[in-house]
Structure formats: C-alpha cells, structure tokens
Design goal:
The protein contains 16 helices and no strands. With 493 residues, the protein is mostly helical. Helix 15 runs antiparallel to helix 16.
Length: 493
C-alpha cells in the first residue's frame, strides 16, 4: 500500500515538474519558439508511469493480497494515470499559450519596429511645434513689452511737455500777477486825483493780466460806484465775491451799492428789500472787519449809518456813526453826520458843539489836501450851521471845483445835507442856506452842459476819424491789412 502511494506521489510530482519546466523555459527565453520535444518528454513520462503501473500489477499478481487491496491499488493507479494525463493536457495548453504569446510578441515587435520611427518623427514635429510656439510667445511678449515701453515713453514725454507748459504758465501768471499788482497804486493815485476814467483804464489793464484777482474787480467796482454806474459796479463786486466770498471790502461795497440802488427807488416794499440786502452785506463785512475803511479812507460804519438814517432808524444811525468816529477820529465825515442827527433830534446844543469839531477837523484836512472835496463839503456845512455865512462863501467856489466831474452824485449829496440842515436853523438863517443851494445847482447845471458839450466833441472827433479811415480804404481800393480771400466775388456798380 505504501508503495502504491509513493508511486502516485511520484507521478504527480513528475507531472507538475514537467509543466513548471515548460513555463520556466518560456520565461527564460521569451524570443525562442516552443518545440514539440516538450510534448514528447511529457509522453515519455506517461509511458514510464504506465510501465510502472504494469510492474505494480505484476507485483500484485506475485504478492498475496486480498481482492479489496488489489482493487484499491488499481483504482489509485488509474487515478494517478488520469491525473498525469490531465497534467500532460495542462502542460500542452500552457505550451500552446506560450507559443501564441511568443508569436504575438514577435508580430508586435515587427509592428513596433515600424511604428517607432513614426513616433519619433511625430514627437519631433510636436517638439518643433512647441518650440515654435514658445518662440512666438516670446516674440509677442517682447513686442508687447516694447509697445508698453514706447507707450510709457510717450506718456512720459507728454507729461514732461505738460509739466514744462504748466511751469511756463505759472511763471507767466506770476509775472502777469506781479505786473498787475504794480498797476494798482497807479490806479489808486488816478482815482484820488478824480481821474476816474484813467483809473478804470489802469485797473482794466491789470485785470487783463490777472483776471482771477478779486482785489482788481473790487477796485473797478468801487470806481464804477463813485461814477454812478451801479449795474457795472454790482457786476464787478459779484465777480470779486465769487473769487473770494470772505473779502470784507467787496462785501461792504456791495452793501453800499444796494443802498445807492435803494435811494433811487420809491418808498415801498421793493425799496425795503434792497435796503435789507444792503444792511446784510454791511453787517457781515463789519462783523468780520470792524475797523474796515473804504477807498476814500472813511469807515464803512458811516455808510451803514446813512442807511439807518434813510430808514428812519435814528438811534441805530447814531450808533453806527459813533463807531465810525472810533475808526477814523481824525475825519470830519462821521462827526458831520452825527451833528445832523443831533439837529434832527432837536439837540441844538450838541449839534453846535459837534459842528465846531467838524470845522476844525475839516479845515485841517483841506490844508493837507486841497483836492479833498468831502472835507470842503463838511467845512461849508459846519460854517453855515454856526452862522459863519461869509467864510462859507469864501471857500464855496474852491469846494465846487474840487468836486469830481465824473461823479454827479457828490454835489447832490451836499445839496441834500444843506436841505437837512435847514430844519435845525432859524428862519433868518434859512434864506442864506437857500442861496448856497441855488448857487450849487447853477454850478451843477453849467458843469453838466460842459460835460455834454465835451462828449459831443469827442463823438464828432471819433466820427471824423472813422470817415478819414474810410476814405483811406477807398483810396487803396478797399483793401486792408487782411485781404479778402474771395477775390472772384463781383459787386454791383
């Protein structure tokens, strides 16, 4: 029994070994083609097993064994033979599979031999395309960089030009502003010399050099105010305040313009509205600059006092003029108006006391400046109030000659002051006042006629110059410095 088992194991071992040998050879030499000898070797092993089985059968015949044992041994031998046969079949299948695999590998090797060059060429083309794309990207990047650099250079050049132009404009503006400021003292001297037109011409020259200067607009507006051209004055003051809303002189001058406009209106709502605008501007300016003075050297408190007097606010008017005396204690102007207010409140004693001071101050001002019309006017008024009629007549002609010819309202204000003074004088003194008033009106009429005559002469001269210029053009065939491009145009005879 043991011998039979041993034979069976050997058969199984040889079968597995044969199969493993075939597989090992296929793995060790993948390029070799499997040979039929492997199949013959397996068949020889099978034959040997059958011989051994026969021998075992013979031994069984010679050995005394039972029938069951013989049958079991035969069955075992048969099973071993079947297993060996199956092993041979499996080995043959493995050999066939390996042969097919090796054939496929050889076919693939041939195909790969053809595909590899094409793959190399394709890879080369792809690499070349990528290299070319990289070169194009690099070229585009360089061109883009160069364009950006050129654009920046152009921007820098533009900024440099703009900066240079801006610096030049600033230099020109600074030079023009400096020249404009140098013209202001000249215009001021012309105004004080009562050459209002000359002052306007000078200020307009300054304005042409520096149009954003609020002081120049203020000066022009002030001269227009004194000339009685209130619309032009208002326009200039508005421009000045637009440039500098906090400019106190322009604000106060705007209040004075409104007051002058209101003086020309009839009593009523419209006049009250204009006077209210005047008060607002005065108060705002004096709040910011309580010691503010006008271009004639007088405190703006006096102009506010005049507004209150016109509205019948006597107490407020007295307060305003008293503030004016604090600002300009050497001026006769606020004291003269205070004296009239005292007269209107029937305080004759204080009126006369104040007029004494007015006479003293006004005389000193006339001595220092013989062209000071307002000082002359205060001197005449104070002497008429104190009964010094002859001394008043002595300076009347000189006073009238100093009145600005281009400011018609100056004589009107003197007439208004004398009319107000009559209310504080006796009946014997009033006729003398009336004589002075009549004399002033006559002088005013003659001056107006003289001004009209001069205006006509100037207009005639300008017309003559225009005619002469026209004649010159006709003599030259109607041409001028600028030739007409439409030379083919015909004119009717």
């Amino acid at each position: 029994m043991r011998r039979i088992t041993l034979i069976s194991c050997m058969i199984l071992i040889f079968s597995v070994a044969g199969a493993l040998t075939v597989l090992s050879q296929a793995q060790d030499d993948p390029t070799a083609t499997p040979q039929p000898e492997s199949t013959l070797d397996a068949q020889a092993v099978l034959n040997e097993i059958q011989i051994l089985a026969t021998e075992v059968q013979l031994d069984a015949d010679n050995t005394i064994v039972t029938g069951d044992q013989v049958e079991r041994a035969a069955e075992a031998a048969n099973r071993s033979a079947v297993q060996a046969s199956e092993a041979v079949s499996d080995a043959q299948g493995a050999i066939d599979l390996a042969s097919n695999m090796f054939g496929l590998f050889e076919a693939m090797s041939g195909a790969v031999g053809l595909v590899v060059p094409f793959l190399a060429i394709a890879a080369g083309l792809i690499g070349f395309r990528r290299l070319e794309s990289a070169q194009n990207e690099l070229k585009e990047a360089r061109e883009r960089f160069e364009r950006e650099m050129r654009g920046r250079e152009e921007q820098f050049d533009k900024l440099r030009v703009e900066l240079e132009e801006s610096v030049q404009r600033q230099r020109d503006n600074a030079a023009n502003a400096s020249l404009a400021l140098s013209l202001l003292p000249l215009g001021e001297r012309q105004y004080r010399a009562q050459d209002y037109q000359g002052a306007l011409d000078t200020y307009h020259r300054a304005l042409a050099l520096d149009r954003e200067n609020p002081i120049i607009h203020y000066r022009i507006g002030y001269v227009y105010t004194q000339s009685g051209e209130l619309e032009k004055a208002k326009d200039q003051m508005e421009r000045s305040l637009k440039l500098d809303p906090a400019l106190a002189p322009s604000r106060a001058a705007m209040g004075y313009i409104y007051r002058r406009v209101g003086d020309k209106l009839k009593q009523g709502t419209e006049r009250d509205i204009v006077y209210n605008l005047a008060e607002q501007n005065f108060l705002q300016a004096l709040k910011d600059s309580p010691r503010l003075m006008d271009e004639d050297g007088e405190a703006w408190w006096g102009a506010l006092g005049g507004l209150y007097r016109r509205r019948g606010q006597t107490e407020q008017a007295i307060y305003a003029y008293e503030r004016g005396t604090e600002v300009t204690p050497q001026s006769s102007y606020p004291f003269s108006n205070l004296a009239l207010l005292y007269a209107e409140t029937h305080n004759r004693e204080r009126m006369l006391e104040t007029y004494k001071r007015v006479e003293r101050l006004a005389f000193g001002e006339v001595q220092s400046d013989t062209t000071n019309y307002w000082a002359y006017a205060d001197l005449i008024t104070s002497r008429m109030a104190m009964g010094k009629i002859e001394s008043a007549w002595d300076i009347l002609d000189a006073a009238l000659e100093t009145a600005p010819a281009e400011s018609p309202y100056t004589l009107e204000m003197l007439i208004d002051t004398l009319n107000r003074l009559k209310g504080a004088l006796t009946e014997e003194e009033i006729p003398e006042i009336d004589k002075v008033i009549a004399y002033i009106k006559q002088f005013q009429k003659k001056r107006e006629e003289r001004r009209n005559r001069q205006t006509q002469e100037i207009e005639a001269l300008q017309t003559t110059e225009s005619i002469e210029e026209a004649e010159k053009l006709m003599d030259t065939g109607g041409t001028s410095d600028v030739e007409d491009d439409d030379t083919d145009t015909e004119t009717d005879a």
